[in-house]
Design brief:
Pfam families: MFS_2 (PF13347). The protein is an all-alpha fold and about 475 residues long. It has 17 helices and no strands.
Length: about 475
């Protein structure tokens, strides 16, 4: 039997546990860090937004470098991806807690502390997230099955989102409220421990597939090195990747701004109704698990390209609904607010899968396996979106006179919060639709890529024929 190992359903679910941690950390920072900086540290919204932008810009440009490092990795004991998750996740947990320590410093000292801790957090997250997101490419050679893998990955990951949206506020209240420094530190520490354990479980679940590559080792021994210029071709000459990144990036910008404003919107626009934020997490999690059963049908019916375009059109309708619904109409407002992450869940799943398809597309065209480098562009764009989203949000809040000490903000501030949550996403969704019109991977292209990748992998792992043998080889090499 030739090498054709595919991950079992059990392994896919265990691997996806890592996305609980990934999503929890991402959501916690994206949802609460701006509020924490403005209301706990006392940093102005503009300065806070600048911190996010500078830190993310510094960090974002390290993502491709991290991708190249991973692509070159070929550990006999830990494979290609696992070492970075196993050793990086505890460090990420520690730095995550440090971000919420609220040191007794001058305002200048607090700003420096925020810059330093946020940049370190971003770099640690890079070390863990890039290999985590690249792993599905070795779980299946089938582009169709990878869509299901991404659906499972996202559905399980939304448990992390649920934990943040449904539990963080009650936990903060339990430890002293959202104005208590100690409460934020305790909640951050609990999430850090929880997430570290999830990352390690995820990494251990793929040990049968993330293994030493004999062909890559022989290449290295012969001195056959792939140049920087050759490696960069997998992204610079990749039309499929470029279109997905434009589509995902504009959406991500809208989502970052929307998530960052939720605390403000529920607290001020809706009149101290932050307890309703948990509904978003529950709805998204339930819907994501439903997606596992229908994603195959949806992709088969429309394809990833048209599937994303349709979802973007629906997202525009939801944003318009929120824009024209009075804030005191809680029922309708919640419908439109909840609809946005549900729509985003579909688009995120399809976009992640399309990025991995574009990695195969690049390998098919160039012969170079740069899966981690391609995956790093996804996090690169995500971080750029976070950077500019936070800066825009912070600048606008200060410009319209947001004051943390006020129980109720001015009408101008309330309108600014609403417009940022609706008009910016509408513009972003339109850009996404335009980009996906030029996405070049068709169903025929997918079949050709799958055949090429399966044959190439079989040659790379020649002599390792079954899953049991792979596990045995790995054990011997350890």
């Amino acid at each position: 039997m030739k090498y054709s190992v595919e991950a079992s359903e059990k392994d896919i679910y265990l691997y996806s546990i890592g996305n609980i941690a990934n999503t929890a950390i991402f959501m916690f920072v994206g949802t609460y860090i701006m509020f924490y900086y403005t209301n706990i540290l006392g940093i102005s919204a503009t300065v806070a937004g600048t911190i996010f932008m500078v830190a993310r810009l510094v960090d974002a440009f390290t993502d491709p470098l991290m991708g190249m490092i991973i692509d070159k990795t070929n550990s006999k004991k830990f494979g290609k991806y696992r070492p970075y998750i196993l050793f990086g996740s505890p460090l990420l947990g520690v730095i995550f807690v440090v971000m919420f320590m609220a040191p007794e410093l001058s305002m200048g000292g607090k700003i420096i502390y925020a810059y330093t801790s946020y940049i370190l957090y971003s770099l640690a997250w890079t070390c863990v997230q890039i290999p985590q997101l690249a792993l599905p490419i070795i779980l299946s050679h089938s582009t169709a099955r990878r869509a299901k893998v991404q659906a499972i990955f996202q559905a399980v990951g939304n448990i992390g989102s649920l934990a943040v949206t449904a539990l963080a506020i009650p936990m903060l209240n339990w430890f002293g409220g959202d104005s208590s420094e100690e409460a934020w530190l305790m909640v951050a520490a609990i999430f850090a421990v929880f997430c570290t354990i999830m990352f390690i479980i995820s990494a251990m679940s793929v040990r049968k597939l993330d293994i030493y590559n004999p062909a890559q080792a022989k290449q290295a021994q012969k001195g056959e090195k792939i140049s920087f210029k050759q490696r960069m071709k997998v992204i610079t000459s990749n039309t499929a990747l470029l279109m997905v990144l434009i589509s995902f990036g504009t959406d991500s910008l809208a989502i970052q701004i929307g998530n960052g404003l939720n605390m403000y919107f529920f607290k001020y626009n809706m009149g101290e109704k932050t307890h309703l934020m948990g509904i978003i997490g529950w709805a998204t999690t339930i819907f994501s698990f439903m997606l596992i059963g229908i994603v195959g049908w949806y992709v088969a019916k429309l394809g990833k390209k048209n599937g994303i375009i349709v979802i973007e059109a629906i997202a525009i309708i939801a944003a318009l609904g929120l824009l024209f619904t009075p804030a005191n109409n809680t029922f309708l407002v919640m419908i439109f607010i909840v609809a946005t992450p549900l729509i985003g869940a579909v688009n995120n799943m399809l976009s992640r899968s399309a990025v991995l398809d574009s990695a195969n597309y690049a390998e098919w065209k160039t012969g170079i396996n740069g899966s981690a480098l391609v995956s790093s562009t996804f996090t690169f764009v995500n971080k750029l979106s976070q950077a500019f989203g936070a800066f825009i949000m912070g600048y606008v809040l200060d410009f319209v006179g947001y004051a943390p000490g006020l129980a109720q903000q001015t009408p101008q501030t309330l309108n600014a919060i609403l417009y940022m949550k609706t008009l910016i996403p509408i513009a972003a969704f339109i850009c996404s639709i335009v980009a996906m019109k030029f996405y070049p991977i068709s169903k025929k292209t997918e079949s050709e890529m799958e055949a090429f990748i399966s044959t190439k992998r079989a040659k790379e792992f020649e002599g390792i024929e079954t899953e049991a043998e792979i596990e045995s080889v790995e054990f011997e090499m350890c």
